[in-house]
Amino acid sequence: MNLSFLIFLPLVTAIMILVVKGLKQVRAIALFGSVLQLLLVFDLLFQYLKERAHNTTQMLFQYDYFWFTPLNIHYHVGVDGISVAMMLLTAFVVVAGVLVSWAQETLNKEFFFLLVFLSMGAYGFFISLDLFTMFFFLEVAVIPKFLLIGIWGSGKKEYSAMKLALMLMGGSALIFVGLSGIYYFGVAGSQSFDLLTISQMHIPLLIQKIFFPFLFIGFGVFTALFPFHTWVPDGHSSAPTAASMFLAGISMKLGGYGCLRVATYLMPEAAHEYQWIIILLATIAIIYGAFATMMQTDLKYINAYSSVSHCGFVLLGIGMLTRTSINGAVMQMVSHGLMTALFFAAIGMIYSRAHTRMVDQLGGLLKVIPFISTVFVIAGLCSLGLPGFSGFVAEMTVFMGAWQNPDGWYRIATILSCASIVVTAVYILRAAGKTVMGPITDNHYLHLKDAAWNEKFAAALLIIAILVIGLAPFWLTDLIGSGTDAIMSKVLVIVK
Amino acid sequence: MLNDFLILMKQELVITGIIFILLFIKVGSKEWKNESIMMLVNGLLLFNVLFNFFGNSEGVLFNEMFKTNQLIGLEKEILSLGTLIISLQSYCWLKDHKHVSEFYMLLLSTLLGMFLMISSGNLLMFYLGLEISTIPLAAIANFDLDKKQSSEAAFKLIISSAFSSGLLLFGISLVYGITGTLTFSELPSLLAVTPLQIFAFILLFAGFCFKISVVPFHLWTADVYEGAPVAVTSYLSVISKGAVLFVLVSVLYTVFKPLAAVWYNMLFLLSVLTIIIGNLFAIRQNNLKRFLAFSSIAQVGFILIGVSGSSQAGIASVVYFILIYIFSNLAAFGVISVISALTGKETIDDYKALYKTNPFLSWVLTIALFSLAGVPPTAGFFGKYFLLLAGTGMAGSKGFILWIIIAALNLVISFYYYLRVVKAIFMDANEHPVKKITLPLLPKIGLIICLAGIIATGLFSFIYEYIYTLSSGF
Q1: CB contact under 8 A, B464 and A210
Q2: A·B CB contacts under 8 A
C-alpha cells in the first residue's frame, strides 16, 4: 500500500474545499474526504495485519525518496503497529469532528480547510520515518490550531490561541535543538535524520544525556507534560468543538508518539537515566490534574484538566520502560483520544443548545435531551475507567506495566497514580450528576432539541470505537505489540 | 576579447540597455504615458529574467577586475527577479507619479551597481559597484516628493552609507598597505592572523555590517524604512541586503579564509546580538514598515548563522534563504504597498479586521508572515532550518550548541510578533476596516509570483539541490 495516499487525500480534500462554494458543498466535500480517509486507514489496517503475519521487518510499506539530497533529508515513510493505531484514532476523530461542525455558519470554507489541513499534518507525522520530515509535519499541525481557536473560539480566545501557539512553537524549538544534536552526533561520520539508521547505531551516552531532555520536553509540551501543560486548559476551553476534539484527540497524541518513537527509542540509555524525573513529573501531572479538575465549574475546563491527568498516564507508561507499560501508554493514547473527543463533542452539543457550560447552571438534561446526555455519561464513565470501556483497559495496562518495574519508589508513584482514579470518579460523577440528573434548572431547557443525525453519527462512531477497544482489547494489543517489541529490544539491553 | 565581453557581461549589458532605452524615451520629443512606460519596463525586466537564466558561463575580464560563474549568474538572476516583482508591485504608487522613467533609471542603476559588486574580483571594483548601487538608492528614497519624511530618509541613508563607505575604504587601504594587492585571487596567500590585518578586516566587516544592518550598525534602518516609499523600502530590505550578503559570503569564504577563526567568533557575537535586538524591537512596533524593518534585522542575524558554516552547505543555504526571503518579504511588502498607496494606512491597528474586506490580501500577507516566521509548509521553514543546519555544520566549534539554542528560542519570539499581525487581521474587531480594494492586474501578478515562490521553493527540493550544485566552487 502506498502510504503517501494518506497525505495526498487530505491535501486534495483541502484544495477541493477551497474550490467549491457554500456551506453545503464545503461540508459535503469535507465529510466525503474524511470518510474516504477512514476507509483508507481501515484498508491499511487489514493490509498491515495480512503483511505482518509473514513479514517481520520492523516498518512495513516503506517508501524512501531523497528529498534534500545534499543534507541527507529523506521523505521516508513506513508504518508499524503503533502508527497504524494512531492513524485509526486520527481518522475516527476527524470524521467525528467534521460531523460535529456540520452547521458551521461563519467562514465555513476556512474552517473546514484548516481542519482537514491539520489532519494532514497528523497523518504525515505518524507515518514519517525521517526526523526532519516528521518535524515538518509536526509544525504543519501547529498553525491551523492557532487560527481555529483565534477565529472561531469563544471566551478569551486570542489569549488562548497565542499561548497555545507560542508554547507549541517553544516545544518545536526544543525538538529542533534535539534533532540537530542527533543529526550531527548521532551517527559517527555521517549526518542522518533517518530514524531506522540512527536506531541501529549507538549514540554516545554523553550526547544522549545532553539532547534527550530537549527532545522529551519538546514533545512533552505537546502532550501536557507538567509544568508545560498550561496551554491545555486555556486552549481547549476556548476552542470551537471540533478544534477541541482535534487538539485533545490528535495533537496531544503527536507529543506522546514523539516522546516514545523519537526520544525514548533513539536514546534509551538517557531515558533510563532520567527515568525518575519523567515518572515524578508524570505522577505530579496525574495527581495535580485530577485535583485541579475537582475545582472546575466549566465543563470544558473539567475535560481539559482531566486530559492533563490522563496524558500523565501516557508519560508514566513511557517512563516506566517495561513492555506492558509502554503498551499501556500507546493504548491510553488511543483510548484517551477517542474518549476525550467524545466528551468534547457532547459538551459542544450541550453548549450549542443551553448556551452555557457551567455545571451549576445546568441540570436535568437527561429528561429533555436524552441522547446527548447519555453520550455525556458514557464519555464520563469511560474517563473514570469503568470496565467495558477503553479507559479501563488502557489504564489497567499502564498500572500493571508500572508495577512490573521493581523499584520501590516507582511503585509508590504507581500507587499514588492509581489513587487518582478515585478523584476522577468524584469529579466525573459530580459533573454528570449535576448536569444530567436532578431537576431542570431553567425552564428554557424544556424546549431544547435532541441531537441531529450528524451529531448522532459522530457520537455513535466514537462510542463504537471505545466499546470495541474496551470489550476486545487484544486486537489492539496485538497490533501495537510489534512496535513495542522493537522499542523494548533497545530498552532491555540497557535495563539489564 | 569582445566575444568574452559580450558573453560574460550579458546580464550587465541587458540592464544597461534598458537604462538607455528609458533615457531615449525621456529625452525624446514624444510624451509617454506612465502606464506604457511601466508596461515596457516590466516587459523588459521579464525578458531580462528569462533571457539570462541560461547560458551563464564562467570567466574573468579586465585583469580579474570582473569575474563571473554559474553561481554569480544565479545570484544576479535572483536579484533581477526581485526587481521585477517590486516593479510590478509599485504599480499603484507609480501610476500617478510625475517621474516614472527617472525612478526606473535610478532603480536599474542600483541593480547594475549590485551586479558589478557581486561580480567583482578586486576590492576596488567591489567598492565601485557598491557606490553605484548606493547613491541612486538614496535618490529614489526621496521619491515621495511631497513628504518630508521621505527626504529625511534619503538624507539618513546617504549619510550612513557615506560613513560606512569611509570605514570600508579605510579597511581596503590597510589591506593594500599590508599586502600590496587588492585582487581576490592573490589576497588569501598573503593574509595571516596579525593584529593589523585583523584591524583591517574589522573595518571592512563593519562596512559590510552597515549595509546589511547588523546590530550595532542597524540604527539607520528603521527610520529609513519608514520614511522611504514602500517600493524603495522593499528594495532596500531585500535586494540591496541580498546583494551585499552574496558578496560578504564570497569575500569571507575566499579572501579572508585565513582569518576564519576570527570571523567565526565575530559572526557568533554579532548574529546573537542581531537576532535578539531585532526581535525585541520588532515586538513593540506598530507601523508595519518599521515592524518589517526590525524583523528583517532579525532575519539577517539568522543568515549570519548560515554564513558561519564556512562550507558548501553554508553558501547554498544563504543563497537559498535569500531567494525565499525575497519571495516572502516582497509578498508582505506588496500587500502593504497596495494598501498604503490606495488608502494611506500603514499601522497594525489599521489592519484589524482586514480579512472581512480583503480576504485575498489577508491570506497573502498571512502566508508571507508565516514564511518569514519559518512555519511549514511555506519555504521559510526550510530556509531557516537549513541555515541553522549549515551553521551548526561547524559542529565542534565553540559554543555551537548555545548558538543554536539561542536561535531556536528566538524563533519563538519572532513567531509572537508575526502572529500579532495575523491576529489583528483575522481576530480583532475594527469599526473602520480598510475598504475593499480591487487589485490592478500588475500587482496581482507580482503577489501571485511571490505566493508561488513561497510554496514551491520549499517543497520542491530541486531548487535547493540546484543551488547546492552551483555552490561547489567555494
Answers
A1: no
A2: 84
Q: Which tens digits make up the pLDDT trace of B161-176?
A: 999 899 999 999 999 9
Task: Report the alpha-carbon distance of residue B285 to residue A184 in Å, rounded.
Answer: 38
Q: Max Cα separation, chain A? A: 74
Mean pLDDT of chain A: 88
Q: Tell me which amino acid residue A470 is.
A: G
| Percent of chain B's residues with pLDDT above 70 | 98
In the stretch 63-122 of chain A, residues with CB closer than 8 A to chain B read 66-71, 73
CB contact under 8 A, A185 and B377: no
Buried b (16+ CB within 10 A) or exposed e, A387-420: eebbbbbbbbbbbebbbbbeeeebeebbeebbeb
Chain A residue with Cα closest to B464: A68
Question: Domains of chain A: which residue ranges?
Answer: 5-495
Residues in A touching B405 (Cβ below 8 Å): 177
Cβ burial, residue B71 (10 Å; 0-12/13-18/19+): buried
For helices B123-141 and B100-118, give the axis angle rounded to 10 degrees.
Answer: 160
B378 contact residues in A (CB cutoff 8 A): none
Chain B contact present for A8, CB below 8 A:
no
- Give residue B60's region: left, alpha or beta (phi > 0; psi -120 to 50): beta
Cα distance from N-terminal residue to C-terminal residue, chain A: 38
Q: How much is the ipTM here?
A: 0.91
Domain chopping of chain B, boundaries: 2-473
3-state secondary structure (DSSP) of residue A156: coil
A397-429 pLDDT, tens digit each? 998 888 888 888 888 889 988 888 888 888 888
Neighbours of A212 (CB within 10 A): 26
More confident residue, A66 or A438: A66
Q: What are B30-33's contacts with CB under 8 Å, separation 24+?
A: B32/B101
